[in-house]
Design brief:
Blueprint lengths: L2 H11 L7 H11 L5 H6 L6 H12 L1 H18 L4 H28 L6 H16 L1 H8 L51 H101 L1
Helix pairs in contact: 4-5, 4-6, 4-7, 5-6, 6-7, 6-9, 7-8
């Protein structure tokens, strides 16, 4: 079985629209009935949405991808011996670049009939980041034969071999695909400018993404408002109950204070009566002793 032949078929299949992949792969496998290549072609996995968008990017934005990977290689080389401040600056540059390329990938996917969700965009950006920090991931991405997104943890090498269609893809580079030229202006008057349309589509994709994120933030904020409003009503109800209880206790306290004052007055009167009684008893005892002594 020729690895070059498998790679050639894989390059063709992974360059197709995502929805056509399975049908085209199975048809090609049937054409190869009896050929040793049949099993290898039949085993080619359908790419995930994020992987397909990156494969699309590699083919249609080859120069941009090559520039990004070149920057990644330079950054990996420059990281050796760098101080913390320089590393922070390089990390910021890498994030800016991967964000910009992700935006372009979303716009490109849209022109090919696929709207990229934020979750898929996150996988795309994570794959681009992995390709900039890991050489194996860079080779996997450049092959244009990704079947799964990549992620760099910083603690282990990226599993690049497990993310490509065939192991030989790690030494392969997908060919660039040229967009068809626009029709001549004299044949179609007022033909829209292709670059302007691409820029407008990119702007729309960014605006839609920003709107979705803002809507999500607004929904989360509204849920917080609803939750706290309900809690506020509950607390206000409990506070009102405390106020009523406090008023009752203040009334009871006043009554108890009045009763206490009366009780203290009664005790003082009793103390006076007791003192008088003690005086009378002592006088009587003195009289008794005097009389007994005179006998």
């Amino acid at each position: 079985m020729s690895a070059e032949a498998v790679l050639a078929i894989a390059e063709e299949l992974y360059g197709l629209p995502l929805g056509d992949f399975t049908r085209a792969r199975d048809a090609r496998a049937r054409e190869l009935k009896g050929d040793p290549l049949q099993a290898a072609v039949k085993a080619l996995r359908k790419p995930s949405t994020a992987a397909w968008v990156i494969d699309l990017l590699v083919r249609y934005e080859t120069d941009q991808v090559d520039q990004m990977l070149a920057v990644g290689a330079a950054l990996r080389e420059a990281q050796a011996g760098m101080d913390a401040a320089a590393l922070r600056d390089l990390t910021r540059q890498r994030r800016q670049l991967t964000t910009a390329v992700t935006t372009r990938a979303r716009a490109l996917a849209r022109t090919h009939g696929l709207r990229v969700s934020q979750a898929v965009a996150d996988q795309i950006e994570a794959t681009l980041t992995a390709a900039m920090v890991d050489e194996g991931a860079a080779r996997a991405l450049r092959s244009g034969l990704l079947v799964a997104p990549l992620a760099a943890t910083g603690f282990a090498e990226v599993d690049a071999a497990g993310a490509v269609a065939v192991p030989e893809a790690l030494g392969f580079a997908a060919s660039a695909v040229e967009e068809p030229p626009p029709a001549p202006l004299h044949a179609v008057p007022d033909l829209p400018d292709t670059r302007a349309l691409d820029q407008a589509r990119e702007a729309l994709a960014r605006a839609e993404s920003a709107e979705a994120e803002a809507r999500g933030e607004r929904d989360r904020a509204q849920r917080d408002v609803d939750r706290l409003r309900a809690r506020s009503l509950q607390v206000e109800s409990e506070l009102e109950e405390v106020r009523r209880r406090l008023a009752d206790l203040e009334s009871i306290a006043q009554e108890v204070d009045a009763q206490l004052a009366e009780a203290e007055n009664a005790r003082d009167d009793a103390d006076t009566a007791l003192d008088d009684a003690v005086g009378d008893r002592e006088a009587a005892e003195a009289d008794l002793r005097r009389l007994e002594s005179s006998d």
